[in-house]
Amino acid sequence: MQMKKTTTLFVSLLILLAIGVFSASAQQIQPLGKAIGSDKQGNAIYQVTANGIDIGYKLIGAGEPLVMIMGLGGTMDQWPKEIIAALSQKYQLILLDNRGMGYTKTNETTFTFKLFADDVIGLLNTLKVKKAHVLGYSMGSTITQELLLGYPQRFNKAIIHATSTDGSSVAAALKGKGQPPDIPPTVLRQIEATTHWKTPMDKLPLITNQVMLLVGTADTVVGTESSKTIASAIPGAWLVQFKKATHHLIFEAPTQFARIVLTFLDISEPVEVKNL
Questions:
Q1: Domain at 32-266, CATH class
Q2: Measured between alpha carbons, how far is 253 from 226 in angstroms, rounded to an integer?
Q3: Which of 41, 44, 150, 157 is the most exposed place for a label (fewest CB within 10 A)?
């Protein structure tokens, strides 16, 4: 009888272990499309066709999916290595190049933030990702706003870093940093799209996703007011300000940035209120 109980227990443990392994592997995104190279760290770079263009992306780490969207004129290779290393320990990162940058192609379609958001959704659809966390920096933060407004059901938590409610002032600041001959055509198209962005403030209270806004107090590109305004409009949103940090916070304090992102992602905010 004791031998039978031991055998039954052993078989049960094996079944539970097998289920656990299967569940863990089933959650991982498998790369699709064509492999077109690798980055300096040896991570494979892939390209898929979605939303009418070829989109370049990388998958790094394991765990729940976390989409990372770079800022204006940037590429996915520019995310600081400290941030990638920290976040990829617990999450499977989906890094992509925005339209016309890096390994992502473009076409004649006029750039808009809805178009950029549709590119992200096109990639997620191709990779069969039903839901993910999202982190957007600078222009990527505005794309994240568009994603929350247009596709809230496709995302869990969202981190909006160095954002703006009015792109026209941001575009003016960016144009002042260089003359058109010095700015690549695709970046000029991104700046033009930024010029037309205004956050629909009346829709922000409808966002039910858990959101954190991050900004440096010395950010002279977007300032701090937009982050404060959005945080006050989205129910339950976090607002984290890094003292003396500029628009380049992710490069100035990558370890601290990653730490607060992990803290936010790890905490389950909804609380069941008990009658005392």
A1: alpha beta
A2: 21
A3: 41
